[in-house]
Amino acid sequence: CVLVWCFSQVKGAVDDDVAEADIISTVEFNHSGELLATGDKGGRVVIFQQEQENKTQSHSRGEYNVYSTFQSHEPEFDYLKSLEIEEKINKIRWLPQKNAAQFLLSTNDKTIKLWKISERDKRPEGYNLKEEDGRYRDPTTVTTLRVPVFRPMDLMVEASPRRIFANAHTYHINSISINSDYETYLSADDLRINLWHLEITDRSFNIVDIKPANMEELTEVITAAEFHPNSCSTFVYSSSKGTIRLCDMRASALCDRHSKLFEEPEDPSNRSFFSEIISSISDVKFSHSGRYMMTRDYLSVKIWDLNMENRPVETYQVLGENHFECCWNGSDSIVMTGSYNNFFRMFDRNSKRDITLEASRENNKPRTVLKPRKVCASGKRKKDEISVDSLDFNKKILHTAWHPKENIIAVATTNNLYIFQDKMN
Amino acid sequence: MLGRGLKRKLSDYEENMAGLSSAFDSSRSLPYPLKRQLVLNMCLTKLQTYKMLVEPNLHRSVLIANTVRQIQEEMRQESNQQPVNICPGIAPASHSYTGLESPGISLQLPSGISQQESHCCDLRSFPENTGLKLEDDRQDLKGAECVFGSFEISNSTSYLKDLAIDDIFEDIDTSMYDSDFCCPPLMPPRSPSLICRTDLSELDHIMEILVGS
């Protein structure tokens, strides 16, 4: 059954006057779910860490508190083209943890960076030649020899850029995706997809190029791309024409010819002036199992079986536009996407039930159960329902993320991050 | 087995959503060719606006350009099938765009047309011909496609070697898209018909939601 959800936390400024730099542009849990990263329009990354569960508070899971904040990207000016390059973080992707440090990739429109986040909770004390404050001692006063020892200090979390992958994209980067080999990753812009090795910054391989010889013939752009979670040679990319192409890198160096093309034939009775616009896919995500993929377009969320190209196996109606993302829960049984009016929707694939919830400060007491919302056609409004005419189309939930193992979700409104969890017991 | 591939039984929410998506085709008071022309004008206006940006959004431009192409293709097919004007309420104006340059021209309507339609058609910002002529279509199409020409130039690393910008655009008559006539007032200064204005702003609203500004 569709879970019952409770408010857990909200992060961000309370007032309605939103500073543009604070607008959240991406949300991503790491592989364990312990860390939750957000990127914003001002180029900053904020990482939250889940508290260790307290045995005495077994009725709720650990809270997320700020762990690290750093400036990932700065605005840049391209002098050759007279263009400003926005510092807005388009995507964050975590690497799986290999040692004590955490690594993530963050990208703006043009440059991808690999960040190392490490903890320091000890420092060496007792130098021979230096005072504790760093000043050098007068050598004539040094009469004994001692070995510095590490002593505990307040936890410091440091973020340092380890790699900068630049100058490979003419158009705006919309996706990054780490390969299951954990050594390579792809970056996609409107017309091209490049393959990188995490250790090598001075070159990348172009694996998809849909730029026509004559730009005036351009009719389609790439909207999202992702590597398959298990098969290291497989990736998909979605387009503004509503198609998804699955490519196998073993077939050729340049994957311009797809291995599979997923497209639902258009229902001619649904044709309208806006058909071209509403068929555009805004996001594509593989299920954790790798058996399915989910796409988000203007009016629906579709689940595709990778073995069937001619139509999706499930379709769920929801309102959106060309930047809404979608995500799977850990067991691939529920999918979630955002909508307008700060609503977000969840669809249980097994029971076929769905729920609409709202991210709002009105429900901000911890463990308050969220009331399901209902949107109705204009004129037929019942009590507590919202008419589609009164939806606030400026309040969009573009970015949502689901904890990989637990029923904890992070939902970003314009400048606030809401964390909800399912009602335990 | 078709089970899961079919849409589920419509819930209230889905009915509503279906209603909203059919609002894109809204069967309101405007006759279809007029609605189509409105949408076409809106799209061309947007393309013109995008062209003026230093770095237009490629995704949005492609979506709008495709919409323009779709509408023009439809118009082309209709004009191939029917040599007669589809929109009988609008008298054909002079056969070139120079007609637009004299703002005093208003559309002459046969008396048989209903009052409502005549109000709708009396908007001076409409281009004279409703794009039924092939020549007009080609002009429109070039208007749409020359957006991407500018992408090429601003984004190509070898643009310094390429044709001068003027060469690419020299044969395109963009007088139709001069901002005086096309943007933004698709709304008449004094709207004679409330229904008309609602429809315009509704379409505009839908475009805003779908594509943004």
From TrEMBL, chain A:
SMART domains: WD40. Keywords: Repeat, WD repeat. The keyword DNA damage does not apply. GO terms for cellular component: protein phosphatase type 2A complex. The keyword Transport does not apply. GO terms for molecular function: protein phosphatase regulator activity. SUPFAM superfamilies: WD40 repeat-like. Belongs to the phosphatase 2A regulatory subunit B family. This is Serine/threonine-protein phosphatase 2A 55 kDa regulatory subunit B. It comes from Malurus cyaneus samueli. The lineage of its organism: Eukaryota, Metazoa, Chordata, Craniata, Vertebrata.
UniProtKB/TrEMBL annotation, chain B:
Transmembrane segments: none annotated. Residues 32-79 form the SERTA domain. It comes from the Eukaryota. GO terms for cellular component: nucleus. Coiled coil: none annotated. Signal peptide: none annotated. It holds the Pfam family SERTA. PANTHER family: CELL DIVISION CYCLE ASSOCIATED PROTEIN 4/SERTA DOMAIN-CONTAINING PROTEIN 2 (PTHR16277), SERTA DOMAIN-CONTAINING PROTEIN (PTHR16277:SF16). This is SERTA domain-containing protein. It comes from Malurus cyaneus samueli.
